[in-house]
Amino acid sequence: MPDDARDIRKTHFTSDIGPELDGKEVVLAGWVENIRKLGGIKFIILRDKEGLSQITIPKSSSRVFEEVDNLGKEFVILVRGKVRKMDKAPQGAEIIPEEIKTLNPAISPLPLDPTGKVEANLDTQLDNRVLDLRRPEKTAIFIIRHETTNVIREFLIRKRFIEINTPKIIASASEGGADLFPISYYEKEAFLSQSAQLYKEQMASVFEKVFEIAPCYRAELSRTVRHLSEVYAVDVELAFADYEDVISLLEDLIYNVFKHIKKNCSKELTALKKQLSVPKKPFPRYTYTEIVEKLQSEGIEMNWGEDISTQAYRKLGELLTGAYFILDWPTAGKPFYILPRKDDPKVCESFDFMYSWLELASGGTRVYKKGMLIDRLKEQKLNPISFDFHLKTYDWGMPPHAGWGLGLDRLVMILTGSENIRECVLYPRDRDRLTP
Ligand code: AMO
Fold it and tell me: What confidence tens digit (pLDDT) does each residue in 13-27 have?
């Protein structure tokens, strides 16, 4: 700490200040949100991580009164003073300062109005992210994200899952080759991991129930409101289970997340003007075939076996407004590690979890017999030799298993009512954005 901050120490957050502290000396520290002058009184609105406090400076405290004129918006200050009960102030109390210290000034004008009164477009907001995040409706998104990660972790640990960390620098693709980022790795070429897939499957043969919350990398060419190049995924893998088991697990998890956020983040949801309703269990389940028929009857032109287009997803979002599952996708369109159905191998034991128009998760029962996995790799024009490191683990006692990957950024988008995934990531990475 620099000397000027060391001699007086922050004692409270703004949210700790209330009429019950009337007469008590406190030290607050934070940022100047605003300064107002009303005749013989000056007010500083001080902001910290918890909210706002009103610092009231009557003319009679002449030295401090003069010093207020040297302050500007977003200056970092320490304020030592007495709490005074005041019904009209935030939290029913104000601070009458005896000392105000500037720890660091800020420039004026700032590149962005942190109060949001002067609107800036998303690019300007993201270019000046630190300032942009000084608004409660922006920090609310990240507090909800924090709570979401926390509740997911607690939920899975309660269900006896082990949290693992798999490598993000890898030698070969796990999802097929197209959207990999190559990197230079000493004398070799390597890639950024696009999914924890193969490693979490291997770990299911050790720990049985594993999960990971980590970034994965997708060289997405498209510029959309739902695609990023650096994605946070919640990955789960469960031994001795099939897709029905992991669908129920995901349903319970999502239900718990919504319930927790609604109950514990009301301040943040209010800041975001978001009404969150907890989806009712069980979430509806449709087969891919039923979805195709639904879309066709709505005039969307598509054939069985094709991917669902963005336009078709938007149509689905009009028809199905909440949480639902799409099951039994065509085998050809799903990755090699998904198990084809025994009774009808052109469809597989796979699912997507949807919220309105947005895919939040996908998963399925895995192929766990080595011979079939090699056949599936070949069918998908992938070279089994590149997967040798993985395939050999199927000779060492690989249990049947199933799992899913949930896009954390997209889940936060739904929970916060954000229209663009970039709003839910501190420093989003996409085709055009690599800084800040
Ligand atoms: P998938 O590729 O469907 O499945 O990814 C899982 C979830 O991650 C999110 N997601 C993305 N979010 C933002 N931008 C992107 N570019 C992006 N790509 C994916 C989505 C998606 O549903 N290994 C499988 C999972 C499994 O079977 O366990 C996988 O990675 O929300």
Answer: 999 999 999 999 999
Banded model confidence at residue 175, pLDDT cuts 50, 70, 90: low
* Closest to 83 measured CA to CA, from 94, 73, 92, 69: 94
For the record, the structure tokens of 322 come out as 């909440």
Strand partners, 192: 169
pLDDT exceeds 90 at position 87: yes
Nearest to 25 by CA among 64, 78, 82: 82
Cα of 352 vs centre of ligand 1, distance in Å, is 10
74 as an active site residue: the answer is: no
Length of the chain in terms of residues written: 436
3-state SS assignment for residue 223: coil
- Check the CA dihedral 112-265-28-7 and report its sign: negative
> Which residue, judged by its Cα, is nearest atom 29 of ligand 1?
405
Q: What is the pLDDT of residue 90?
A: 84
The domains located in the chain, with CATH, are 3-104 (2.40.50.140), 129-284+320-424 (3.30.930.10)
Predicted confidence at residue 6, as pLDDT, reads 66
Q: Are 33 and 52 in contact, with CB atoms under 8 Å apart?
A: yes
Mutate to test the pocket of ligand 1, among 168, 210, 231, 360 (most ligand atoms within 8 A of CB): 231
Residue 405 CB less than 6 A away from ligand 1 = yes
CA of 358 to the centre of ligand 1 (A): 11
Query: Model confidence over 207-220: pLDDT tens digits?
Result: 999 999 999 999 99
Q: Are 262 and 373 in contact (CB under 8 A)?
A: no
- Give residue-wise pLDDT tens across range 116-128: 888 899 999 999 9
Q: Which of 94, 410, 418, 422 is catalytic?
A: 410
Q: Can you list the alpha helix ranges (DSSP code H) found in 26-80?
A: 62-67
pLDDT at 63: 87
- In angstroms, how far is CA 267 from the centroid of its own chain? 18
Question: From its phi and psi, is residue 225 left (phi > 0), alpha (psi between -120 and 50) or beta?
Answer: alpha
Catalytic: 220? yes
**Which candidate in 80, 134, 145, 218 is catalytic?**
218
**Side-chain-side CA neighbours of residue 22 (13 Å):** 7
* Pairwise CA distance, residues 176 & 194, whole Å: 9
- Average pLDDT of every residue of the chain: 95
